[in-house]
Amino acid sequence: MNTTPHLTEPEETPEELEALLAAATSAAADWGQRSPHERADALSAVADALDTAGHDLIAEAMDETGLTEGRLTGELKRTTVQLRMFAEQLRDGSYLRIAVDRQDPDFVLGARPDLRRWLIPLGPVLVYAASNFPFAFSVAGGDTSSALAAGCPVLLKAHPGHAETSRKTAEVVESALRTAGAPEGTFALLTGRQAGVTALRDSRISAGAFTGSVAGGRTLFDIASSRPNPIPFFGELGSINPAVVSTDAERERGEQIAAGFVSSFTLGAGQFCTKPGILLLPRGSELPKRITELAQEVPPARMLTSAIAERYRERTAELAAAQGVEVLVHGTEHADPSGVPQVTPTVLHAGSVANLLSEPVLLEENFGPCAVIAEYDADEDLREVISAVPGTLTVTVHLAGQPDEAERQQVSDLVALATSRSGRVLFDEWPTGVAVTPAQQHGGPYPATTAGSTTSVGTAAIDRFLRPVTYQNAPEFLLPEALRESNPLGLPRSTHQPGTSQNWASPQ
Fold this sequence. Notes:
Helices cover 39% and strands 17% of the residues.
């Protein structure tokens, strides 16, 4: 039994927290009114500075987290790529979705005023760093870069699991922003559990963003929602990410599926939000035996923190004790020089779908290298499981061959159901490894996230920190530059000229 105490973190004093909040509030108007090109240059400067400091930052993160140099090198690259992608998005300008409807006395519904709509930043954003990504979902990660791109100052609540890495990364970010001309208070680091709660309650914070546990995220979401002035809270909480394998897929590439599943659910010691937690196989499948063999070969991997290891230990025991569950692979726990345990995978077999559904605990996320297998008899079994699964980030479907018309309809029905329960539906791949692209959707119905209509990965993440404003019959000199008739910033816009709406009327 590991007895390492839970991580402690220094608390900002009330005076220090007040200074950070005041600085962010002061910076909001200035940073939000900077042109998209100016903010783009600042984000690019941050990316360049992180690249320059990369060697030292990676070395620090290796010491604190036990993650490998290769993993952290790739993660830091992802972080700087995200920053540069948002910079490119700012330079393009279409993210503002500017629409101009010019005055039209003959509009089909009656005289139309001059209307000009665009998106503006919400204001200071409080970002909570994640435990499992010390770069990509931490100080300069996706939430920070998308909020800064939107024009929102960021207060970053550091995660105690990589406190020194966070401090050094924050120094790089602050220095780069300052050199690029960003106002003081555009970005700052804060520490302490209570400081993070107090800041969220402060009326000067306009939005929150979080990646972590269901319990922690729900507590913060409730605080954000119950304030006298409620604010949006974009929390990524917990996800089971079920995967379905068809009979034909197993027959065609069973070995590949078994190896891919084991690699995916044990990646990073299973501490990825997209880890496939449930595998649904056809009745009588040979894959559980092969998965067992492969999982037993996986070497021990370090958990991120003692607190996460303790919760994983408790959850795994709870799952193993559920009715009808057979433990195919008993995970082990090993001492680590850091005091944080190393663990090997656990594989559980729930038996039938009926038994899986009778034990709701089996449908909940277990953050670590543990997975549950169940066997289905018919397509209806699959529909019942997907319907019962809480909102999830992903659903994976493994198919094979060319299905006939009846099979196509069955798969289509399953995919439609999967779409209603998740934000990303994958085919013949595994959900770990989230591509950072404009088309990515990293979100889903609760409890996967608290805002299923948004994403925390990809350039669409900027939408979370913007809100629309329309100016009606505004004098030209009072309009923001982006909305003026002369369009001095050269930003893209959609325009409706007088007389262009007549085709909206029903034919006489």
